[in-house]
Every structure is written in structure tokens, then in C-alpha cells.
Design a protein that fits this description.
- GO terms for molecular function: 2 iron, 2 sulfur cluster binding; dioxygenase activity; metal ion binding.
- This is Aromatic ring-hydroxylating dioxygenase subunit alpha.
- Keywords: 2Fe-2S, Dioxygenase, Iron, Iron-sulfur, Metal-binding, Oxidoreductase.
- It holds the Pfam family Rieske.
- Residues about 1-5 have low confidence and may be disordered.
- This protein has 7 helices and 18 strands.
- It has helices at about 5-10, 15-20, 145-150, 165-175, 180, 275-305, 320-340, and strands spanning about 25-30, 40-45, 45-55, 60-65, 75-80, 80-85, 90-95, 100, 115-120, 120-125, 125-130, 155-160, 200, 205-210, 220-225, 230-235, 250-260, 260-270.
- The chain has 2 domains: about 25-130, Rieske Iron-sulfur Protein (3-layer Sandwich), CATH 2.102.10.10; about 145-335, Naphthalene 1,2-dioxygenase Alpha Subunit, Chain A, domain 1, CATH 3.90.380.10.
- Helix 1 (about 5-10) crosses helix 2 and helix 2 (about 15-20) crosses helix 7 (about 320-340).
């Protein structure tokens, strides 16, 4: 993003929401293994978060900003569900309440709730945080597609960080046709027509963008859904040499880190049970995973090489109606949230 674009994002509340992600949604913030009992600092959706685990393993998250003088809470000491700022020892509970001010006991800061707290949930090998601008007691629930929520499926989480606007990463997934060209040497995307017509099919939670007249041949469709969190789903056909389980499903989430960085989550899933589950997991780790990373690297290299304002200088055609629908959805959500905040 150029300096001018960043300035515009700061001045325009709608563009700011589009740059750092709409509010009041659950976002995947990191793999579970990133967070232990020692606090860590991660920047997500334009904010710094301090995350840590208590003795029971429960994850907590606060804005990485002490309400006293702005010291980094992540450099402090975790005390169960509280964290002590290293600068002046101010203790902040996981709900944003200041419980202790050692240097001035009984001052008005004690007992107040000035710190921004984030509700967190751990699921499917990742930690999710609810992105709100104010403290709330009960966030809404969220669900993910059946490939993750059903025990009939087995999955692996693939995590990466790309140096690009998070919207570029979502546009990439909402563009099935790029698989025919960018990934044409892939073991699973070498087949199918190089020309196609697309259609949009609405669902209860979003829409499906799909090729007409071709299914189960290449990367032929993508689904976008919002169920408390925003996700994308697609299928890649697999040859029999890919092991049991039929088509290979991918569930994806993208989280903005800042104007130029994105956190990328792809769960790679197959419907398998019993001995087939064990076979598939062994085959994935020992043979397929490296191939999947090679395909993902092609996407990363392409998006990181695009100019920051590339999406401002486009000439779209019929294959792009899926990402146009997605952009309109996000623009509408951001506009409504900006108007509500202004009102």
C-alpha cells in the first residue's frame, strides 16, 4: 500500500475498516502452538495483541497496551488470568479491568475497565479472537464448515504470512480460474478446460462462485460464507494415487496483520475414517504436504510481486464476478459499521 493509500485509509473510516478488517467478527489470529504461558505480542487487524495461557491452558488476549502509560503488556508477567505491565507493575485482568496499581493503591485506575480485551476461542489447531472496538461481555458464536466441524473429516492446518493486503489473498481464492494457469503443473490441477463461464449461486451464509459445465476436474468452485467468522471453501480433485478420501477440501481464513501483511490459514481436509484416516495422514505428511506447499508458494510469490495499488488499476471480465461480489459484500459491511459508529 502506498503512503497516499495509507493516508486515505486513515482519513476514510470505510477504507480503514476494509484495510484492517470489518469489526464484530471472529478472526483466526495464529496457530495454537504460538501461545504459551509466557505472553507473546502479535499484530492483527491493525492492533497489537498480547496473548498468553493461564495454568489451565486457557488463552487470554488484551490489546498490547497498558492503560496507564501504554507500556507493552506482552513484556510483562502473566499471573493466571491477569498480566502485570513491566513498566510500573499495573495488573490488568483478561476482561480489561485494572485490578492493582502497586505504585498508587486505591487510585481511580484500580477497578476501572480501560484496557481493550478480546474474547478468544481455540479450535481446529488455531486461536480465534473477536475483533471489537469496545469490551463486550458475550460475543456471538461462530461456526466453520463441516470439513472442520464434523468428526467424519480429518484435517491439517497450514499457516503462512504473506506480504500483501489481506484482500489480495481473498481475491486469489475467489478466482478459481487462476488454478488452470498458475498451477497448471500441479499434480492436481493439470486437467480441465482453459476457458470457462462462471456463475454465482447464493447460499444461506454467502455464495458459491463456480464454473458451468465442469465439476471435479480442476479448481472449479469457491464458496464464501460468514457464520460469525468469514471463511472460504473449495475442492481440488485428487487422483487415486492421492490416497483415500475422494476430493481434497480446503477451508481458508485470511486475517489482516497490517496494511502490507496477511495471516493465511488453510485447513486441508479429507473425509476419511478408520484405517483410511491413518493412511491419509501418513501419506499427507510424507508425500503430499511438500506438493501442497509448492502450490501455495506460487500464490504467495504472485501476490507479493503485485503492486500495492494493483486492485485500483484493473480491467475485469466475466471470470472475476466472484471477487466483485465479495468486494461489494465487504464494502457494504464496512459502510454500515462506519455509519453506525458515526451515529
Amino acid at each position: 500500500m502506498t503512503t497516499i493509500a495509507i493516508a486515505n485509509a486513515a482519513a476514510d473510516p470505510v477504507e480503514k475498516l476494509l484495510t484492517f478488517g470489518p469489526k464484530n467478527l471472529w478472526y483466526a489470529v495464529c496457530p495454537s502452538g504460538f501461545v504459551g504461558e509466557k505472553p507473546v505480542s502479535l499484530r492483527r487487524f491493525g492492533r497489537k495483541l498480547a496473548l498468553w495461557r493461564d495454568a489451565s491452558g486457557q488463552v487470554h488476549a488484551l490489546e498490547d497496551h497498558c492503560p496507564h502509560r501504554g507500556g507493552p503488556l506482552s513484556q510483562g508477567v502473566a499471573l493466571g488470568d491477569r498480566i502485570a505491565c513491566p513498566y510500573h507493575g499495573v495488573e490488568v485482568r483478561c476482561d480489561g479491568t485494572v485490578t492493582k496499581v502497586p505504585g498508587s493503591p486505591g487510585c481511580k485506575l484500580e477497578g476501572s475497565r480501560p484496557a481493550l480485551a478480546f474474547h478468544v476461542k481455540e479450535a481446529h489447531g488455531a486461536i480465534f479472537a473477536f475483533n471489537a472496538d469496545k469490551n463486550i461481555d458475550e460475543p456471538p458464536a461462530f461456526t466453520l464448515p463441516e470439513e472442520l466441524s464434523s468428526p467424519e473429516f480429518s484435517s491439517f492446518l497450514c499457516y503462512s504470512e504473506w506480504k500483501c493486503d489481506w484482500r489480495y489473498a481473498m481475491d486469489n481464492v475467489m478466482d478459481p480460474m487462476h488454478g488452470t494457469f498458475l498451477h497448471k503443473q500441479s499434480h492436481s490441477m493439470a486437467e480441465g478446460d482453459s476457458t470457462a463461464a462462471f456463475r454465482i449461486r447464493d447460499t444461506e451464509t454467502g455464495f458459491v462462485f463456480e464454473k458451468t459445465g465442469q465439476r471435479g476436474v480442476n479448481f472449479d468452485w469457491t464458496e464464501w460464507g460468514v457464520t460469525g467468522t468469514a471463511w472460504m471453501r473449495l475442492e481440488i480433485p485428487y487422483p487415486k494415487t492421492g490416497g483415500p478420501g475422494g476430493n481434497f477440501a480446503i477451508v481458508g481464513c485470511v486475517t489482516p496483520i497490517n496494511e502490507r501483511m496477511s495471516a493465511i490459514f488453510f485447513w486441508r481436509c479429507r473425509k476419511v475414517d478408520g484405517w483410511m484416516r491413518d493412511t491419509w495422514r501418513f501419506l499427507y505428511r510424507n508425500r503430499l504436504e511438500a506438493r501442497h506447499w509448492a502450490v501455495l508458494e506460487q500464490d504467495r510469490v504472485m501476490l507479493e510481486a503485485m503492486e500495492p495499488d494493483a486492485n485500483q488499476r484493473e480491467h475485469l471480465y466475466q471470470h472475476d464476478i466472484g471477487l466483485v461480489r465479495l468486494r461489494r459484500f465487504l464494502k457494504t459491511m464496512a459502510t454500515e459499521q462506519a455509519q453506525a459508529a458515526a451515529g
